[in-house]
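Q: I'm writing up a methods section and want to include an example of the input and output format. Could you take the sequence below and give the corresponding predicted structure tokens, formatted cleanly so I can copy it straight into the document?
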Amino acid sequence: MFLSWWKWLLSFFYPQTSPTMTGIKQWVVKEPWLNLHCELGEGPYYEVATNTLRFVDIKKKELHTVNVAQEPVGLKTLQLDMPIGVTANIEGVNPQEKILIAGKSGIYILERRTGKVELLKKFYDTEEKDERLRSNDGAVDPHGRFWVGTMNDFWLGDVYAEGSLFRFNSDLSRTTLKTDLTIPNSVGWSLDHKTLYFVHTTAKHILAYTYSPTTGSISDERIFYQHPGPGSPDGFRIDEDGFIWQAIYGEGKVLRISTEGKEGKVVGEVSFPTRNITCPVFVGTAIWVATAAEEDEREVESVKYGGGIFKCDVGVRGRKEFEFRLERGV
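A: Here is the clean output for your methods example:
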């Protein structure tokens, strides 16, 4: 009797993992580490030097920072006057002082103590596009270039095929890689830097491209993974073995997808008690996951935990994040 009670207690505090009949490894997370209730939590980024997690609430225009070694207290919030889609470190710059952000109109340097921003380069050259669109997700590539997708801003009430995928080089020159996108999402690279993966959320797939590390060009577009479920792929990260950990918005899951072969195969699944999973990030051997609020009041548990930050030890580490190589000083 005591042994059964003890096993139950352990299962509550530690996420359980077990293989299914289909050979997919499973983990179950029962509650958030930080029940913050973000409207649209996104862009989790682990700062190694300070052992802190930073993430954004795009709708509330907030940047949050919390120490992951402590109990979920001491959360610091920086209020901004524009939505931030994603952040990145700048090579040679202390991220506690300044970071790179993708904001409303382009890419900026953010001074974290004051909230002051400096525009480096705009996404668009016309006022109409500048007003209608905002940044979403993105990442820095192995050669220090910043890739960012844009989509319609919230005030439009819907999304249209007006977004783009941009690459910003170290000299701040801008290249447009794709247009006519609705919800462009995460960008990432294979371990050998020869393949670029890119999520188009509304198409429910991950695209793969042949990637040139030297020039940053992409070619040979193909569908790498098409999601069959009711949810949609959102943000992802890649682990040290080259597997993609893909958040599925609307399904309460992060999938581990093998990158061996021409098509992605799901080999693992982490389940959460809220549906709108936006993006994971690795902290040691755990994934920490940002989420968005649940809009369907009938989904009682999802409403309760929506917008929280979750964590789950999955037994593998993530690859190191690349930093933006800015030629000019900050």
